[in-house]
Amino acid sequence: MTGIPSPPAIKAWARLMRVSRQLLERAEDALKDSGLPPLAWYDVLHELAEAGEGGLRPFQLTERTLFAQYNISRLLARLEADGQVEKLPVADDGRGQTVRVTDKGRETRRRMWTVYGRSIAELVGSWLSNDELDALSALLGRLRDPPAPE
Amino acid sequence: MTGIPSPPAIKAWARLMRVSRQLLERAEDALKDSGLPPLAWYDVLHELAEAGEGGLRPFQLTERTLFAQYNISRLLARLEADGQVEKLPVADDGRGQTVRVTDKGRETRRRMWTVYGRSIAELVGSWLSNDELDALSALLGRLRDPPAPE
DNA sequence: TCTATATAGATGCATTTGCATCGATCGTCA
DNA sequence: TGACGATCGATGCAAATGCATCTATATAGA
């Protein structure tokens, strides 16, 4: 019975898609303009930095970042080729590996954050109050992880 | 002075990016599962349908859809090859052309909407009340079209 | 233990995107 | 009118994405 979306739903959807695309593009542009790698690198380096010395398995990264499995596989290959991460065999699972961020990777993340963080502040932080930002987060949170259509 | 984003700004940004990506993926999957073309086709067909008989110039489509110019160029080539749109020379500008949706294109849009609309209803409409959806639209509207960084 | 099935991760191939640039026409200004 | 910069749209080439599938290891069940 939810076949036809209400006008407010359509409008919210349209704005959500449009605004997120636009802001994402701005953030990517800012990184490019500073000669820094794309946001996808940041996402992975960030997760790995949070994970600490233990590192993460690639499949854990696919869960956390929403990138497709083959995408993570290739992204990690690029990051490794560039010395940003290192892959270690994992003892109790011969199929897998553990990925750990290197010092260079940590430094890359730090440099990216100075630009990325500024983008966030400019694109979002300077237009809404903290209360409004919290309200936005709360509303978006209700749309998160909707149950997959069986 | 807006160099460092506040925690609420970071959280709102993260949710915005994550939720929009996730919902977009769901909507795309639903179309694929029904054997329908990707959302990009819908966006263009929708704009052209709204424009009516007069059609639109490609550069107008790039403005309205946020797709890059070369992207629109190739998307239109694919749509034309598939008979969804037709390109007409435009009288008063020898460089340009006018793009108009065909009957087939209108039919494609209609069929896509039955699936796409249901996705919107399920992914957004069923989780927030209309008032909440309006509040979300209003907040997102404040983030729209931020002035480009010079 | 042996077999069947599931999971981790990589990869070949086609499609799409991004980037730079091009050819063509338009508009402006001398 | 003629020259010049701007705009419209297309395109060659490289990189990234999507899709299907593959290899290898792990796990469950007879």
List the helices and strands and how they pair.
2 copies of one chain form a homodimer.
Chain A: H1 7-33, H2 39-51, H3 58-65, H4 69-81, E1 85-89, E2 97-101, H5 103-125, H6 130-141
Antiparallel strand pairs in A: 1-2
Helix pairs in contact in A: 1-5, 2-5, 3-4
The first copy, chain A, binds a DNA duplex (30 and 30 nucleotides) through residues 57-59, 68-77, 93-97.
Structure report:
2 copies of one chain form a homodimer. With 150 residues, chain A is mainly alpha-helical. Chain A has a domain at 37-127: Winged helix-like DNA-binding domain superfamily/Winged helix DNA-binding domain (Arc Repressor Mutant, subunit A, Orthogonal Bundle), CATH 1.10.10.10. Helix content of chain A is 64%, strand content 7%. Chain A is built from 6 helices and 2 strands, in the order ααααββαα. Chain A has helices spanning 7-33, 39-51, 58-65, 69-81, 103-125, 130-141; strands spanning 85-89, 97-101. Chain A has a two-stranded antiparallel ribbon. In chain A, a hairpin with a 7-residue loop joins strand 1 and strand 2 (97-101). In chain A, helix 1 packs across helix 5 and helix 2 (39-51) packs across helix 5 (103-125). The longest helix of chain A is centred in the first third of the chain and has 27 residues, at 7-33. Chain A is globular, with a radius of gyration of 18 Å. The two termini of chain A are 17 Å apart. The model of chain A has no long low-confidence stretch (mean pLDDT 94). At the A-B interface, helix 1, helix 5 and helix 6 of A face helix 1, helix 5 and helix 6 of B. The structure holds a DNA duplex (30 and 30 nucleotides).
